Amino acid sequence: MKKIKLEIAPGVETEFVDRDRALAQVAEWAEKSTRWPVVIFGPEGCGKTAFLRQASVMLRELGYDVFYLHPLDRVFAAEVDDPDVKSLFLDLVRKTLEDERWGRLALAVFDLTREILKKRRRKIAIIADDVFQAIGLDKAAAYVKGLLNTIEHPVYRYENIVVLVATSEGMSRSEIGRHRWADIMPMWNMAKDGFTQLYEAIPGVKPLFEKAWRWTGGNPHMLLELHKRSWSVDAVVKALIRDKELTSSFIAKWRRRLEEAVEDPEALWSPDTPEELIKQLTEKNLIVYNMYDRDPYFWIDQPPPERDPELGIGRNVAWQTPLHREAVRRALREA
Ligand SMILES: Nc1ncnc2c1ncn2[C@@H]1O[C@H](COP(=O)(O)OP(=O)(O)OP(=O)(O)O)[C@@H](O)[C@H]1O
Ligand SMILES: [Mg+2]
Predict the structure, then answer these.
(1) Tell me: the pLDDT tens digits for 238-261?
(2) Which among 126, 125, 143 has a CA at the least distance from the CA of 134?
(3) Ligand 1: residues within 6 Å at CB?
(4) pTM (predicted TM-score)
(5) Cα gap 136→132, rounded to integer Å
């Protein structure tokens, strides 16, 4: 399989590394179809976009017509055999880029799929990355229902269909989960072996691998952030405190709970934890709450360990990365 190229730093390209199990899962879906849309969630920067891009290329190689949508990055592609559908899609992309009505494009994929299948039974893949942010969280569930209908009640028959959706928006999981219209699957940061390969690909002076691992917990984005900021943990943590708005009022309001949670995230699982706090930590993409059973069956790629106090992973609640936890710890100290 052709591996995609990813720019991991200005002027530094690497091939997509690892995620072997995830790619084997794609091969399995390609064989059998996804019975529901697969909605992938996980820590910010864990590699969802990279995975979906690699999956698109793989599915194309396996003979699929592939629609790929990533509105936030303004990347849209129709790797399809039918030239008419391709030009229809490109026209729509052009129009959408003018007036930024991403929802229209996301919906157009349903018609285009039908158009392709009208002529001949085919294998179809729809890959949508972070569409919910573009079309609005309130429409996320309806969109997923539309995808499910394409699978369950196609107007024209298909040979196989694979529908993959990723979201980095913490709240979309519960919004979609309520309806049972999708197979919601978590993806975690990279496991140590794969992360080593990414670490090796970074040029120049580097901290020891073990340090990089303990700070990032295998999160590729955080590794690249550290690299960008000359490996200054301090700078990355400060940026997190600012971007996540860990303000003195936020800290003051939840101080006791947060102090417990930086020691052990599982403290947030206790039944008396205010829902509002969990919602805010989820919205800020600081934690993943209500982690799935670690049976690999439920996960994209390899599940995280059951518990890893050093990385801030508890059985039911985990910090997205140790740096996220460190930002809260620092904010607690400084507020
Ligand atoms: N398997 C991989 N091989 C090489 N580089 C990777 C891999 N996975 C992720 N990266 C790199 O790490 C960075 C973060 O990954 P990516 O953008 O895919 O994460 P994400 O989960 O989509 O993040 P977000 O939550 O912000 O959408 C990117 O620069 C990406 O190219
Ligand atoms: Mg992404």
Answers:
(1) 999 999 999 999 999 999 999 999
(2) 143
(3) 6, 8, 14, 16-19, 44-50, 130, 168, 198, 220-221, 224
(4) 0.96
(5) 5
